[in-house]
Design goal:
- With about 240 residues, this protein is of the alpha+beta class.
- The protein has 7 helices and 9 strands.
- The strands form 2 sheets. Strands 1, 2, 3, 4, 5, 6 and 7 form a 7-stranded antiparallel β-sheet that branches.
Amino acid sequence: SEKFNIALAYSTPLTEMTIKDKQTHIEEVKTGIFGFGEHKVENVHGFECSMYTLSNVRLVTKKRSEHLSPELKSWGKEVQGLMKHGEFDAAMNKLQTNPVPIDTLIRVQRPSLSYDQYSSMSQEEFVEWLSAPYQQKQSIKSFNSTLWMNKDFPLTVEKVIDILALLGDEDQHVKDLTHFLQFKLPPGFPVKLEIPLFPTVTARVSFPTYQTGDKVDKAAVEIPDGYTLVEDATLVME
């Protein structure tokens, strides 16, 4: 719900994630013992896929938490723990029985500034004043990935990114997958890909079946009871 998303926003760090690709290398996987053969092709769920490796992909994560009080950090950590274990109902119930302690939010104030001080500031000094005070932590995670690409797969990377956007940004693994797909991949669609999550854990994402149809079930687009269609084609509650 909207209230739940707002509560999470108040109780979790501000996070910015970017993929650095300047040092990333894309190479074809070759056949043969020493990799001097032809471009390796494997059949994945009925699709002939060309294999590639992406090496030294760097995921940079920046987090700011100066606005979080100990109470907010504790509340957010507990709710995220419930969500990671799939206990979404329990997380929603916590919002009702133990609301997020917004009143403990730390309101960061910049130092006061006179007009003369503002007028004589350099650009570097102004940027420092505008961004301070803040607490930022940065982490860099480098990983390699294996891709199985097919040019004829009936789905595009852009559509998958749109679908992942509907899932929200609460799940860190969904965030990682979204940022990875936004990277400049080899031609085609990744029918299968492997992304290391931890030193001993690798996530394997694949698309075993995908079907498209020309006809859409009318029930899927019917206006729900209690709603009316207005002139600008938006749905409003009566």
